[in-house]
Amino acid sequence: MIRVVLVDDQELVRAGFRMVLDAQDDIEVVGEAGDGEPALRLLAATPADVVLMDVRMPRMDGIEATRRITGTRAGPRVIILTTFDMDEYAFAAIKAGAAGFLLKDAGPAQLIAAIRAVHSGDAVVAPSTTRRLLDRFAVHLPGKEDKALDAVKGLTGRELDVLLLVARGLSNAEVAARLHLSEATVKTHLGRLFTKLGLRDRVQAVVLAYETGLVKTGQLQRPE
């Protein structure tokens, strides 16, 4: 059972989401909140797997709440929901650690698929989309501190090859074809580099590649 928390300042919106999700055999809505701060209190007391998070709320917005929720790897995964199709919101959501970004007018099937995807460890925001956003907003990215750079340098040569290709937005199948490996081997390398770098998913890997300078203005390079 996938435990979901709904965070939106509009009660009617939450009721609509609950109606859709409660109809699924494998999804259970375990709590609701109308703002970021009560959402954090709720999550501190209620085990949850996925949070559907509104962006614009009156006190603590969804981006800040997401940043706090995803501060540890053990926390629930967050899908940002917004009525505004703006790159700035998607970029902020990715930087905050969200595993997904959807418009509120997405259909029920798309919403349910997104919840199942992030629960299984995937990201709903495609790495290629992440890369496009980071190419546009890279000037706003701070550089990572030395320990992150050291962690990247601690990857094996093959793990680094995989990271660089993931940073380009390639799928596991495409990475496997490029490196003449099996998809299972690529998944193994991904799992190891995620653990070494403290990452949750491919989207965070793309962000880290930009922050550590592996990617600059759309180009890739190995660390010295």
Structure description:
It is a single chain. This protein is an alpha/beta fold and 224 residues long. The chain has two domains: 2-125, Rossmann fold (3-Layer(aba) Sandwich); 138-212, Winged helix-like DNA-binding domain superfamily/Winged helix DNA-binding domain (Arc Repressor Mutant, subunit A), CATH 1.10.10.10. 51% of the residues lie in helices and 14% in strands. The protein is built from eleven helices and seven strands. The chain has helices at residues 11-22, 36-45, 62-69, 87-96, 108-119, 127-137, 146-153, 157-167, 172-179, 183-197, 202-211, and strands at 2-7, 27-33, 50-54, 77-82, 100-103, 215-216, 219-220. The strands form two sheets. Strands 2-1-3-4-5 form a five-stranded parallel β-sheet, with helices on both faces. The chain has a two-stranded antiparallel ribbon with strand order 6-7. Helix 3 (62-69) links the parallel strand 3 and strand 4. Helix 2 packs parallel to helix 3 (62-69), helix 8 (157-167) packs across helix 10 (183-197) and helix 9 (172-179) packs across helix 10. The longest helix is centred in the last third of the chain and has 15 residues, at 183-197. The protein is globular, with a radius of gyration of 18 Å. The mean pLDDT is 83.
